[in-house]
Amino acid sequence: MAAPHMNFPAAVQRQALARQRNLCASCGTRISAPGEAGIASHAYGERAEAHHVIPHKKGGPVTLENCVILCRSCHYSVHQGGSWRDASIYDDLDLLPMRVRIAKIAALYPHYDG
Ligand SMILES: [Zn+2]
Ligand SMILES: [Zn+2]
């Protein structure tokens, strides 16, 4: 279980999903609600999970800007494969202000803004 300070508040998760126009930030599958509440209406029966755009261990805050809502399988894949597997992509951003770092990585999500 993650430490509480790592977790996005429920209200932030709902706001992020609204910003994404109820689409998974990665694949665009419709998500009606974060967490278990969205399972019944998800096309593949997956719960939706909140993910840090800039990882917690890289100083990423639990703010709306740093939150994306993803299908469970999309969340797995951003951690285990694809564009996000190589953590050095974050090192290249270390000298930039946090809001710029967040914006640069957020731009990699096709549905960050819906
Ligand atoms: Zn994550
Ligand atoms: Zn997805």
Automatic annotation (TrEMBL):
Cross-referenced SMART domains: HNHc (SM00507)
InterPro entries membership: HNH (IPR002711), HNH_nuc (IPR003615)
Top-rank lineage group of the source organism: Bacteria
Annotated ranges, domain HNH nuclease: 11-76
Keywords annotated in UniProt: Endonuclease, Hydrolase, Nuclease
GO MF annotations in UniProt: endonuclease activity
Protein name: HNH endonuclease
Organism of this sequence: Belnapia arida
